[in-house]
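In the laboratory, one determines a bound structure by crystallizing the protein with its ligand and collecting diffraction data. In a computational setting the workflow is compressed into a single prediction: the sequence and the ligand go in, and a structural description comes out. We illustrate the idea with adenosine monophosphate.
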Amino acid sequence: MAAGARLVVLGKQGAGKGTQCLSLSHHYVVTHVSTGDMLREAVKQSTALGLKAKELMDHGELLGDDLIMEMVSTRLEESDIKDRGFILDGCPRTVEQAKMLADFLAPVDLDLVIDIEVPTSQVLRRLASRRVCVDCGANYSLTARPLINWTCDVCGGEVVQRVDDTEEAISRRLEIYELQTAPLIDWYQSRGQLAQVTGTGAPEAVTKRIVRAIEERRNRKGGRFS
Ligand code: AMP
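The predicted complex, in structure-token form:
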């Protein structure tokens, strides 16, 4: 079995983070932790967190750093992650969250941060076409539909357009990305933790590029992370 890893995947909305994180989690047998999925589940269950999160999420706004990092650090304490590591998707989204994450993980920092680069014109096209399963989060699009109507191939759930994939919410999320999340790229670069990978082309080709970047970094570290 491949060695575990502690990874963060960055990229604009629609860059393919969810799809790539799923492939990487299978490849490295490591838990995929998506803050967006955790929050959508909280909204679905109408938990106290879900009730707080819903309106902000629907409008594409970010939740507070403390709230997010409390949710994430609780998840990172669980045993599956302690054993094999994690692939963090959707977090950090601000430099403050990145600092809080580094403090939480100390003394053992992240192995690598991967930034999936896709031009904005392309992510806009992808987001307008994106459809997701309400139950398991599997991704589809207008051109890659489920086999039967809009029923998920994986779990049989209903496949719909995300509430925050409206034109207005998409443009707000991309604006927030530029303002609050893009500065993370320089922040991780200055710490020598960043690998940038081109996210265009077939998903399988992107996964290969990411795995190559991870293995190059692992080899440079003498064959092991952490
Ligand atoms: P995502 O599925 O990653 O696009 O996340 C969906 C929504 O959840 C975002 O638009 C935010 O409202 C919220 N969210 C997810 N992760 C974070 C985070 N790390 N910090 C703040 N808000 C977040």
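The beta strands are 5-10, 31-34, 85-89, 112-117, 130-133, 139-141, 159-160, 194-198. Keep in mind that any predicted model is a hypothesis to be tested, not a measurement.
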